[in-house]
Amino acid sequence: MNNMVIAIDGPAGAGKSTIAKIVSNKLDINYIDTGAMYRAITYKAIRDGIDINDEEALIEMAKKTQIDFKDNNIYLDNEIVNEEIRTLSVSGNVSKVAQIKEIREIMVELQRKMGKRYSVIMDGRDIGSYVFKDANLKFYLTAGINERARRRYVELKAKGHKINLDDIVNDIKNRDDIDSKRSFAPLIKADDAVEIDTTSKNIEEVVSDIMEYIK
Ligand code: C5P
Prior knowledge:
Elements: E1 5-9, H1 16-27, E2 30-33, H2 34-47, H3 55-63, E3 67-70, E4 73-76, E5 79-80, H4 88-98, H5 101-117, E6 120-124, H6 127-131, E7 137-142, H7 145-158, H8 165-181, E8 194-197, H9 203-214
Parallel strand pairs: 1-6, 1-7, 2-6, 7-8
Antiparallel strand pairs: 3-4, 4-5
Bound molecules: cytidine-5'-monophosphate (C5P).
Cytidine-5'-monophosphate binds at residues 12, 34-35, 38-39, 94-95, 98, 124-127, 175, 179.
């Protein structure tokens, strides 16, 4: 592998995307939010009235869907969907869609292509354990459930979403449960990943821990 690949995995709300974005800027490499890819597929299914339990229909739709990243925007069939994919309705259904093997295979192929084309820091659930088993560096970020929910609440509230904390706690617990129990490429810490508990660390501390490993 010529390009550098840094994998950041962990449960929902552990701070992966915030940290990955900052580190990507420091290293001047691309940041790929793989959760956004599964969210985009889920958003499209809901928008187009496809039954979330109809696996065949979801797979057919995914095969005909184009997902791209450009300038920190996520494109679904050439349309920017940065905000649309963050609603609780998408969050509440995405883990169900993401457990479908065929859909994961389509997303993983795209992710591997990106890693071949340029250096990346990629965050998700299975990046170090499945997508890039030979990544140059792997991190596994965790944090207590209350802290993870609080962070997500503050983030969504700031963006103007109408939400309450209990719904966020339930969403996170539900997704972690499905993500870690699915049979194909579940959420798991790769044996060679560095685990960082971010519960009582601020963003700068986590970034500085990670930069130390990178050096
Ligand atoms: O990272 P984020 O919380 O936005 O991810 C949304 C969902 O997408 C996760 O809960 C999980 O179901 C799915 N996902 C996945 N594999 C990845 C990234 C995300 O299954 N690599």
